[in-house]
Every structure is written in C-alpha cells, then in structure tokens.
Amino acid sequence: MDKFDAMRIFVRVVESGTFTKAAETLNIQKPTVTRLVQLLEDELATKLLNRTTRRVTVTPDGAAYYDRAVRLLADLEELENSMTGVKANPKGRLRIDLPRPLAHSVVVPALPDFLARYPDIDLEIGASDTPVDLIADNVDCALRIGTLTDQLLVARRVGFSHMGICASPGYWKRHGKPAHPGEINVHHTVIHMISARTAKPFPLVAHHDGESVDIQGKRTILCNDVSTCADLAKAGLGIVICGTFMTAPLVASGELKICLEAWKIPPMPVSVVYPPNRHLSTKVRVFVDWIVELFAAHPSQVKPDNG
C-alpha cells in the first residue's frame, strides 16, 4: 500500500461524505477506495470512519488524522512542485472563504479569468459574513474586511473598501436629505452592521474640513449581514453606511441614492489571510496576486493598497 495514496483517498472520502463520491471524483473503482481506507485503518490500528449504508462520518481519531493529513499532503505537493517546476502551472484544490457581498459583486464575476489562467486549480468556495476558522476548517486563504484580530494568521492588505452614505429614493423623499451628518442623529434611522467578533455595531465617523461626526441615528436597526443591511435600505427603512462594493450596483440601478458625498467615512481595510503552514503554497500565492490585480481594476469599489 502506498501510504500517501491511501491518505489522499481517505481525505477525499471525508470531504465527499461517501466512498462512492470519492471514487467518482478520483476516477477509481469504489472497491479500491474501500480497500485502501481499510488498509490505512489496519496500519494505524485505529478506526477512522464510521460507515452506514448511506454515508460515512469521521471518528474523533479520524478527524485528527484528517487535519494532519491535509497539511502533510499540501506540504508534499508544494515540495514536489518546487522540484519539478510546477510553480508556473499550479494545480490541486484551493479552499477560499469570501465575504458574501464582495464575492457577489467583485470576485465571482471575475473568476473565469482566474480559472482560464490556472485551469488545473480546483476551487472550493465558502461565502459568508461570518469569518470561519481557517486552521480548524482547513481553508487555504480568505478575504477579510476590517481590522484583523487573529494573530495566528499571515495577512496581506490588498486594498480598502470605500464607504458611502445611502438610502432609497422613497426614504429621502419622506424624510429629506440631511445637509450635515449631525442631522442624521436628530431625525433619521440608521441601519447598523454588527461586528461578528464583538456583536456591537461598527463605529461610523464622518470627516470633512477638519470636523468629525459620530453617526448614531435617532433610531437604529441592527443587522449582522451586510447584504441584508442594503436590502433594508432598499426597502426604505433607513440610511445605510457600508462599502461601495455592496451599494455601487444599487446606486447605479437607482435603488439607492447617495448623500453627503463631501463627508468621508474612513475606508475599511481588505486583506487576504492564510494559515502560516500555507505560506509557501503556489496556489495561494497566485490567488493573492490575482486578487491584488482584480482590486486594482475596481478602484471605484475597492481602492488598491499602494503601500
């Protein structure tokens, strides 16, 4: 038994959930998959999987083995690539996690270009407004918006998200547009995005000509999903202050209207983060370089980081 082959097969079984799907994705016979996983368990003298007629589940020992196996196989792939010149043609599975609105408006529409450049990379994409645990979930890299708090991750700042003050035309018609952000705190409802880390609203401070105003709103609507915040504003329920990568398409369609453009909200940093054990990965490196290039092509939504 080739232990690395058995390890790869075991990893695929865990990720696909069944022996049948693992065999299909690996283009080998199901009995081969079953036999090699059994041999691996015999070699380790440990049960790695619980089997039923419909699905397999991972035992605690199997979960621990899977985590180590994924890292070991990634390191082995990188070593082989470095010795065989595959750096120019990276291949294999790349697991990425993206903020949902940034994925929808900027990244996903451009992915055909990335896959045309790197056709041997297989993408696995997660999209959510709640950050995942990259190390625990074996994610290769992720985009993060805002201040980073996880000191265990390697980070590269790739740009800044512009911020805009918007509401629906109907809302402005009913309540009038403020001439100064201080009026928002007296007369208007503000839709606040809640931080997934602190469960508190993100601070919103507007600056103009040496003056700064903390925007709270007379009334507030709190929400933990930035896409829903924009939907609430579209419905005419209040003013939303969020990244233009989210609001730009809605402004272009006329569903939202901007106000107080002379006042600037500090932009939110956008970073690529990845676990320390992924720092040599060719797949991660080319994806990060592509993201930097992509943001440079969308300066109205994400300002490139020019150092």
Automatic annotation (TrEMBL):
This is LysR family transcriptional regulator. Keywords: DNA-binding, Transcription, Transcription regulation. PANTHER family: HTH-TYPE TRANSCRIPTIONAL REGULATOR, LYSR-FAMILY REGULATORY PROTEIN. It comes from the Bacteria. GO terms for biological process: DNA-templated transcription. The keyword Cell cycle does not apply. GO terms for molecular function: DNA-binding transcription factor activity; sequence-specific DNA binding. The lineage of its organism: Bacteria, Pseudomonadati, Pseudomonadota, Betaproteobacteria, Burkholderiales. InterPro entries: LysR-type_TF_proteobact-type, LysR_HTH_N, LysR_subst-bd, WH-like_DNA-bd_sf, WH_DNA-bd_sf. Residues 1-59 form the HTH lysR-type domain. The keyword Transcription regulation applies. It holds the Pfam family LysR_substrate. SUPFAM superfamilies: Periplasmic binding protein-like II (SSF53850), Winged helix' DNA-binding domain (SSF46785). CDD domains: PBP2_CrgA_like_3.
